[in-house]
Design brief:
Blueprint: E1 4-9, H1 14-23, E2 27-33, H2 37-47, E3 50-52, E4 64-67, H3 71-83, E5 87-91, H4 98-111, E6 115-118, H5 125-135, E7 144-150, H6 164-167, H7 171-174, H8 177-187, E8 190-198, E9 210-217, E10 222-228, E11 238-243, E12 248-251, E13 256-260, E14 263-268, H9 282-295, H10 303-323
Parallel strand pairs: 1-2, 1-4, 2-3, 4-5, 5-6, 7-10
Antiparallel strand pairs: 7-11, 8-9, 9-10, 11-12, 12-13, 13-14
Helix pairs in contact: 1-9, 3-4, 4-10, 8-10
Bound molecules: nicotinamide-adenine-dinucleotide.
Length: about 325
């Protein structure tokens, strides 16, 4: 069977996509693309593919593309690729506005292409196991979730990340969307989504650099999520605590621990780090994308599924707008 000819556009986060396609048996990494020619040339040399600075010039030479570019470019680039009949793996978030997000979703349907959001967290084996634990109520039914995503971005004033319009919001929209998606996937449809945010501590950002969100789900479960790009000092960059009447399930991306009446034990992990040249954590989502293309399946994180987390975040933003005095 012919391999899926792929290109990656944008070679910062996209580098992980490029490594993952390069390592995947079902793909042929055909092109890497970046506006910085030197960067593209270096990656192409390392991975044995071609490079260009103009992705629209190579569109006819590929079957599928990973778009790993700034958020305000997601809609125009995804729409262009889909109109040319290409399958698209789009870095999160969908787009900077709801209207553009819907345009992408409808275009994927109209042009009958595979469209997947790169919700990388969902596809990690440790997260698949966490989902199974929650879904099968292995340690009871979750009634409370607390999640802390504590990152630090060096100040980058004047960049697309610093501007609300090009980022689509603040840290909650850009980075928090992974974890809002995870909470919805684990706990179900949210009936209440609210947040407050600040750019104290991240004054270089127009949008919030730190957000505290609360959610309530149809099941009755409640969640609290902290997301930040201003936290230089922390004990762990990512933590999720799920409480059931009988246990605490503690997850930190490498390990799942359970604390209950039998004491504390590790039920998954610690996970080994995947080597850079295999695409680190991007390898799992890329394999799912390729599988969907080859088998004609709908990705788990298609447009409609991904829109749920985006809508929850837009609701969170509306809460603060409506309650500011
Ligand atoms: N899933 C994750 O963990 C994760 C982490 C970081 C970033 N991201 C996502 O990846 C995407 C890119 O973020 P980033 O941090 O890599 O941004 P970045 O600004 O650091 O890098 C973007 C790259 O794209 C290139 N580029 C910009 N416009 C281009 C164009 N028109 N054609 C070709 N190349 C172009 C730039 O030269 C740059 O090398 C965003 O959607 C972001 O949210 C995801």
């Amino acid at each position: 069977m012919r391999k899926v000819r792929t290109a990656v556009v944008g070679l910062n986060m996209g580098l992980q996509h490029a490594y993952a396609y390069h390592a995947a048996e079902q793909a042929e990494l055909t092109w890497v693309v970046d506006l910085e020619e030197e960067k593209a040339a270096r990656v192409a040399k390392e991975l044995g593919c071609r490079y260009t600075t103009d992705w629209s010039a190579i569109i006819e030479d590929i079957d599928a593309v990973s778009l790993c570019t700034p958020h305000h470019l997601h809609a125009p680039q995804a729409l262009q690729a889909m109109a040319a009949g290409k399958h698209v793996l789009l870095e999160k978030p969908l787009a900077t506005t709801k209207a553009d997000s819907l345009r992408i979703i409808h275009a994927a349907e109209e042009h009958n292409v595979v469209f997947m959001m790169a919700y990388i967290v969902r596809y990690l084996p440790i997260v698949r196991r966490l989902k199974e634990i929650v879904e099968k109520k292995e340690f009871g039914e979750v009634f409370s979730a607390q999640c802390w995503i504590q990152a630090y971005l060096p100040p980058a004033p004047g960049t697309w990340i610093s501007r609300r319009e090009t980022l689509g919001g603040g840290v909650l929209f850009s980075h928090g969307c992974h974890y809002v998606d995870l909470l919805i996937w684990l706990l179900g449809h949210p009936t209440i989504s609210a947040a407050v945010g600040t750019n104290l501590g991240t004054e270089w950002m127009e949008g919030e650099g730190t957000a505290h969100s609360i959610m309530k789900f149809e099941s009755g479960a409640v969640a609290h999520l902290v997301t930040s790009w201003g936290m230089k000092y922390k004990e762990s960059p990512a933590l999720l605590h799920l409480h059931t009447p009988d246990a605490l399930i503690a997850f930190d991306m490498r390990t799942i621990d359970v604390i209950d009446k039998q004491g504390k034990r590790t039920v998954f992990g610690p996970v080994d780090k995947i080597p850079e040249d295999r695409g680190t954590n991007a390898v799992f989502q890329v394999e799912h994308f390729l599988d969907c293309i080859i088998k004609g399946k709908t990705p788990e994180t298609d447009g409609w599924e991904s829109l749920k987390s985006h809508q929850a975040i837009w609701d969170m933003y509306s809460f603060e707008e409506n309650h500011s005095q």
